[in-house]
């Protein structure tokens, strides 16, 4: 920098400010020359804006306005291309056409794209030919070889180079690695490793039993390797089946129907394996399926006997006698040996042992009498067992139906009790009868009704059979008198129409009743004769009952009132009758005058004023009467007698029986002490003659002690 004011005498000073001033850029303050202190990188900062000014060295004042100038960094090719990823991963289907897109790689150059070719990148393949190629300008990788087979090679590693300067000599370059995997397509059909398979199975194998496994190999993977197995031809299309194990992709041959060695010993099947997912563009390679022959040999086993039927149904009349044959069952050993068979009844199904079976020929016969009305069907189980091998047995259900025989008479459907009005007219219907029968005839029930022969003549009623298993009872005369006859018993004979004819006699009760004009029953009891006073016996009884009830009510009311008077109003802890105060103090004897304060009895002030009894209902309210205090020198006997007299004359004394006991021993006892403890300390023998003077109560004691003295004297 140079100022026009600079005369070269050193009076001016140049200063620099702005981006990098004093750090990247410095200025010679005398000459104004600007220099860079270190190497500059355009990729870090391409432009610097600086400001310069010339000032007077002595005064520090600017001699010219501040000037701004821009420093631009020119680019050189000092950065190589860099890929966005160090390693790329890509997939492409196997057998793809040439030119199939795989992946696109991208590299960037930090140099200035507007200045020369420093940032112009060109792509090329260093490793991966001839399988893949890359477009030089876009970096798109494509397949370059036809029919690349995953089953031959699955993984490829491709190295791509990016070079600047348009790929010319002297350009900088960078590389990246692309890992390419061929994905599977269904281009391989399944193949059986062998053409024939052979298995064995016993004839006793139940349906669903697996016999063996076969497997076809497929070079593909995933769903392209899934295989479906099927039986396409053979003698056992309906006897065997094949299913696919989804985990192992094996075909499992199973039994579909029961096998019989005696009927067929060997089966030949043709099993086919195919891919369920097929790509049409590979059908030219051939059918995507394969077949193999499977031979199955049935092995003979000792089988249980086989009945001729899956179930048997027999019929027998209920009047059949014991040991009557009903029918028979048949079973035989299916094996070639034809072992003999014996029969038996499973007693768990015939607990009452009603039926039995001939163990040799299988004939079923009765062992007890039957009753269809008790049990219509008998369901039992018959067992057939090989005689030579009892472990081999089989069972068959046997259903026995008991046929009906007319062995039950008909009877009334319910108990019939009806009434007839006293003023009933002749031929009036009073009751409809119905009957039931436990039997079940093939043509249905047909009942007939009639009066019993002993009641048919002279009866006041008639029976009319309606021919529909019902009958009606009709009056035979006009008017009935319940005072003469209040109850009629009609014996009715009911017969059926089956063979042999069964009949029974039922009784219909008919009461004579008083009815209103509409025929509604009012009373069926005979009324008592009317007394001259105009009241019947029933009315008198009703009046007496009312009087007795009234008297009982009055007595009960009086008793309850008296009981209520005696009932305590308050049941509390202050009720003196229910409280016992125990002090547990041991007294000092008769001579102890300090154990009890007699002043308590002599002090009537201790009684609470106006304190009434709370345990009963008071009949009259009296104020408590104060008694004069006793003198201090009053004898206790006199004090108690005074109190007894006061209570006897007290109108507020309790009205119920109350016993107040005042026990006073007196001044002393003429017998002194009866303790035996004191007698031990005496020097001489005691004289017990005085015991005889105490009266008859001490006679026994006098005899005991008096006798001792007599013994000593003797």
UniProtKB/TrEMBL annotation:
Chief site of localization: membrane
Compositionally biased residues, Polar residues: 193-203
GO CC term (a single one): catenin complex
Membrane topology per record: Single-pass type I membrane protein
PROSITE patterns per record: CADHERIN_1, CADHERIN_2
Pfam families: CADH_Y-type_LIR, Cadherin
Transmembrane segments: 539-560
Annotated segments matching region Disordered: 184-213
Key word Metal-binding present: yes
CDD domains noted in UniProt: Cadherin_repeat
Keyword check for Disulfide bond: no
Subcellular locations according to the entry: Cell membrane
Keywords: Calcium, Cell adhesion, Cell membrane, Cleavage on pair of basic residues, Glycoprotein, Membrane, Metal-binding, Repeat, Signal, Transmembrane, Transmembrane helix
GO BP: any one term: synaptic membrane adhesion
Gene Ontology MF terms: beta-catenin binding; cadherin binding; calcium ion binding
Chain ranges of the Cadherin domain: 3-83, 84-192, 193-307, 308-412, 412-534
Function: Cadherins are calcium-dependent cell adhesion proteins. They preferentially interact with themselves in a homophilic manner in connecting cells; cadherins may thus contribute to the sorting of heterogeneous cell types.
Protein name, UniProt field: Cadherin-6
Gene source species: Muntiacus reevesi (Reeves' muntjac)
């Amino acid at each position: 920098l140079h100022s026009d004011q600079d005369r070269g005498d050193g009076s001016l000073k140049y200063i620099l400010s702005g981006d990098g001033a004093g750090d990247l850029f410095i200025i010679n303050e005398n000459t104004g020359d600007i220099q860079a202190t270190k190497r500059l990188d355009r990729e870090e900062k391409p432009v610097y804006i600086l400001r310069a000014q010339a000032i007077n060295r002595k005064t520090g004042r600017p001699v010219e306005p501040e000037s701004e100038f821009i420093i631009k960094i020119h680019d050189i090719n000092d950065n190589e291309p860099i890929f966005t990823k160090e390693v790329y991963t890509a997939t492409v289907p196997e057998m793809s056409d040439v030119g199939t897109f795989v992946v696109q790689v991208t590299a960037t150059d930090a140099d200035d794209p507007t200045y020369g070719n420093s940032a112009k990148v060109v792509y090329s393949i260093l490793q991966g030919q001839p399988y893949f190629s890359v477009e030089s300008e876009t970096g798109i990788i494509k397949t370059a070889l036809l029919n690349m087979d995953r089953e031959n090679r699955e993984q490829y590693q491709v190295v791509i180079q990016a070079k600047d300067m348009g790929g010319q000599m002297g350009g900088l370059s960078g590389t990246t690695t692309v890992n390419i995997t061929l994905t599977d397509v269904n281009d391989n059909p399944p193949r059986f490793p062998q053409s024939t398979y052979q298995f064995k199975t016993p004839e006793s194998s139940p349906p669903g039993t697996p016999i063996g496994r076969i497997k076809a190999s497929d070079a593909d993977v995933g769903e392209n390797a899934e295989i479906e197995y099927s039986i396409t031809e053979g003698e056992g299309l309906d006897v065997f089946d094949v299913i696919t194990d989804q985990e192992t992709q094996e075909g499992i041959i199973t039994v579909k129907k029961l096998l019989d060695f005696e009927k067929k010993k060997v089966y030949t099947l043709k099993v086919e394996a195919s891919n369920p997912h097929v790509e049409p563009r590979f059908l030219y390679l051939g059918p995507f399926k394969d077949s193999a022959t499977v031979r199955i040999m049935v092995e003979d086993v000792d089988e249980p006997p086989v009945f001729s039927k899956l179930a048997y149904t027999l019929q027998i009349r209920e009047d059949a006698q014991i040991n009557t044959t009903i029918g028979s069952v048949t079973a035989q050993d299916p094996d070639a040996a034809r072992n003999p068979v014996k029969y038996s009844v499973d007693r768990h199904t015939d607990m009452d042992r009603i039926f039995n079976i001939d163990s040799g020929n299988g004939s079923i016969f009765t062992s007890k009498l039957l009753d269809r009305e008790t049990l219509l069907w008998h369901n039992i189980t018959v067992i057939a067992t090989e005689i030579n091998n009892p472990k081999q047995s089989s069972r068959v259900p046997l259903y026995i139906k008991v046929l009906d025989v007319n062995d039950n008479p008909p009877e009334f459907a319910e108990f019939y009790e009806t009434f007839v009005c006293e003023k009933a007219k002749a031929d009036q219907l009073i009751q409809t009868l119905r009957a039931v029968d436990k039997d079940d005839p093939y043509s249905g029930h047909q009942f007939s009704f009639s009066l019993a022969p002993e009641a048919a003549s002279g009866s006041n009623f008639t029976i009319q059979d309606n021919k529909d298993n019902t009958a009606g009872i009709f009056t035979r005369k006009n008017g009935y008198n319940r005072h003469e006859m209040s109850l009629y018993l009609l014996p009715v004979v009911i017969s059926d129409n089956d063979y042999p004819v069964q009949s029974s006699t039922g009784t219909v009760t008919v009461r004579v009743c008083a009815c209103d004009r509409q025929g509604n029953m009012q009373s069926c009891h005979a009324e008592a004769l009317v007394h001259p006073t105009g009241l019947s016996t029933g009315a008198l009884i009703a009046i007496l009952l009312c009087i007795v009830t009234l008297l009982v009510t009055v007595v009960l009311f009086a008793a309850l009132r008296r009981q209520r008077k005696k009932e305590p109003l308050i049941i509390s802890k202050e009720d003196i009758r229910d409280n016992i105060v125990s002090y547990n103090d041991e007294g000092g004897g008769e001579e102890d005058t300090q154990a009890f304060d007699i002043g308590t009895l002599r002090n009537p002030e201790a009684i609470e004023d106006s304190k009434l009894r709370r345990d009963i209902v008071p009949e009259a309210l009296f104020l408590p009467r104060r008694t004069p205090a006793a003198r201090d020198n009053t004898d206790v006997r006199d004090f108690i007698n005074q109190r007894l007299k006061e209570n006897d004359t007290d109108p507020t004394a309790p009205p119920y029986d109350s016993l107040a006991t005042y026990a006073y021993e007196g001044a002393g006892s003429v017998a002194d002490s009866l303790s035996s403890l004191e007698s031990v300390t005496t020097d001489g023998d005691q004289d017990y003659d005085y015991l005889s003077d105490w009266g008859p109560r001490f006679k026994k004691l006098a005899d005991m002690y008096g006798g001792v003295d007599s013994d000593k004297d003797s």
